Amino acid sequence: MASSNYEIPNAPDINSEDIEPSADLSKVDLSDADLSGADLTNAYLGGANLSNATLVEADLTGANLRDADLTDADLYRTDLTDAYLEGVNLSGATPVEADLTDASLKRANLSSTILMEADLTDADLYRTDFTDAYLEGANLTNAYLSGSDLTNAYLEGANLTDASPIGAELPRAVLTDASLLGADLPGAVLTDTDLSGADLIKTGLIEADLSGADLTGANLRHGRLKEADLTNADLSNADLYRVDLTDADLEGAVLTDADITDADLEGAVLTDADLEGTDLTGANLKVADLTGANLKVADLTGADLEDAVLTDADLERTDLIEASLLSADLTGASLKEADLTEVDLGGAVLTDADLEGTALTEAYLPSPDLTGASLKEADLTEVDLEGTVLTDANLRFSEFRGSDITDASLRGSDLSNTDLTGAHLEGIDLTDASLREADLTDVNLEEIDLTNANLREADLTGAHLKGTDLTDASLREADLTDVNLEEIDLTNASLREADLTGAHLEGVDLTGAHLEGIDLTSANLNQADLTSANLNQADLRGANLTDASLREANLSGADLTDTELSGADLSRTDLEKSDLHKSKSLPTNLSGANLRGLNLSEQNLSSVNLSRADLRDVNLIGMSANQGTTVGRMCTGLSSPDEYDELAQGYHELKEALSQEGLSQRAREARALEQQARTAEAWERFKQQSFSQVRQLQTLNGWRQGLIPLWPAPEARTQFLTAVGGTLSRYLTGYGTRPLYVLLWTAAIVLGTTGLFALGPSPADGWEGGPLYYSVVTFVTAPPHPPRDLGAITQAAVLIETYLGTALIVLLGYVLGTRDRV
Q: Which residue ranges run through the membrane (predicted)?
């Protein structure tokens, strides 16, 4: 720059009139000088001291101020167009509305400088220090800010359109409502910067550090923020339309109500980000990490979330219509009341996810893992759930109408109040599942495993259950109207109070089933297996139980009016208080059955097996029987004397009834059972009365010390003698009904003594007629010749045989004389 020969006085006395254009003022001390309105065009002020100087409206166009000191200078409306300000110190200066167009401020110090509404268009601000500078409304269009330090700078309303702050540092800077339209800030440091309301359209912020930045309401449309750090940044209400956020880190960022339509967030980190109410329509979120993110009420219509991680994310009431969640990880995510209509969930992991009230209409879910997921009140109408794992899932009140659940696993899941009408359930596993009050009308459940399933109050009207395994299942109060239950395994199933009106039960396996209070009116149970089934209070009016097995079943209180029981096996069945007498025909096998208190008067018991049946308080008046009626053995399982007394009375009634029918042999058998019951009663009374006389003295070391009387009381003695007499009668004469018993005892005694005579010592002249002859004669009358010179044992045997023979002959006569008096 050309210099002037003009001599300049010392600074304090200089004013604007003393200076001419192009003056050489290098290194001149102009501190505190008043140069307001001075014409310093092209002046050379390198190294000059202008601290605290007044340059209001001065013209420094093209001036060279390199390394000049303008500390605290007043530069209001100063024209610094094309000025060279490299290394200048403007700290604390006030270049308000100053014109710095095309100015060069390389490495200049503008810390704390007030550049309000200053014009820095096309200025070269390479590595300029703007720390704490005030740049409100400043125009930095196309300015070169590479390496500049704008820490804590205030740039509200500033215009940085097309600026190039490559590597610039703007931590904690205020850029509220600033315009950075098209600016290129790769790698810029904007930590905790306030960019609220800023215009960042098409701004390049690749790899920029915006952690903690405030971008509330900022316009970032078409912005480039690839790999940018937006950790904990606030982007609420921001416009991010078509922004490139590929691989960006948005962990903990707030994006509430932001518009992220068609944005590219592939691989972005959005862990714990707040995206509530955000518009993400059509956004690309492939491989994005949204762990714990808040996406409540967000709009993700058509968004691509393939391979995205949404673990524990909150997607409540989120709109995901036609979105792609292919292979996405939604473990533990909340999708309550979300809309997933036509969503692609192929390969998605939904373990423990909450899909309560979710709409999944026509969604694509091929074999996803929904273990433990909550789909309460979800709409799964016509959804493809083939092979889906829904183990232990909560599906209460959900809609599955027309859905394909083929080969799905619903083991242990809760399907209470679920609508499954029209659903395809082939090969499904419903073991331990709860289907309480579920609607299964006309559903095909053939060959399905429903072991231990809960179907209480479920509607199975018209359902197809051929080959279904319902072992241990609960069908209490279920509606099985017109259901075909043939070839079904209902072992130990509970059908208590279930409605089986018109049901087909022929040959059904109901072993151990709980059928308390069930309505089986007119049901066809031909050849059904009801072994050990509980039919207490069941309604079996008009039912067909021909050839059915009811062994050990409980039919107490059952209504058997007009029931067909021909050929049925009711052995050891409890029929107490049932209406067996009203049945069309009695079963042939009632062995061991509990018939206590039944009215069997006028009943036909022909060919019926009553062996071991409990006949206490049974009314058998007028019954009919034949030789095929089996009396058999005494009922077992009783313990008290009163029970045996009642049983004895029952056998007495049976004896009288059989006697009236002219069935002497069967009557004798009933009489023998009556006597056996009386003997058992006597034994029990003896034990009861004897133990009542035992007096407890003390307890010593855990052992009871008692005193038993040497001889029982008279009542106990009577019972003892009765019991002993009855026992002897049983084994000697079959209670007076079996002469064969006497003959067998006779043969045993005769043959026994014969052997003793043959093997023992013989008389000197031998046994008269031989040992056998001698024994027979001795038994019938007396010994032909009393043996002499024999041992004491042989002599005693002869004497005993004589007396026993006489007694048994008399006993035989008694039996033969009384056996027909029954």
A: 792-816
